[in-house]
User: Fold this.
Amino acid sequence: MGDMSTDGPTIFERIVAREIPADIVFESDSLIAFRDIAPQAPVHILVVPKTAQYRNVAELAAGDPALLAELVAVAARLADGDYRLVFNSGADAGQTVFHVHGHILAGGLEEGTLAK
Ligand code: 5GP
Assistant:
């Protein structure tokens, strides 16, 4: 389940390892959060478990529900107000990095824009 060893490190593992730079806004033993390189809202932060074990949120929920709960709590804190927390799951849903991550989107969001 979610073993990335044959795929090589994802971009997010390389950010965790400080091999590539990122605008990191939060870090704990288990999570890292940094600003998305191509923001789609005034606030667009990615919250990422450091482990590469889980490819998507369903795998994370099944494998480590406490870590998912921690991710959600950190997202709420970082958003500092109302926010969306989006988990693209699968290529046809727009997922491009197969290392589970939540998108915190906040600031100037409107009703009816969920999938835009
Ligand atoms: P996904 O499409 O998999 O849900 O989200 C991947 C996100 O990672 C995209 O929003 C993309 O802009 C972001 N991203 C990809 N490469 C980098 C990078 O090198 N640095 C940062 N900060 N974000 C990245």
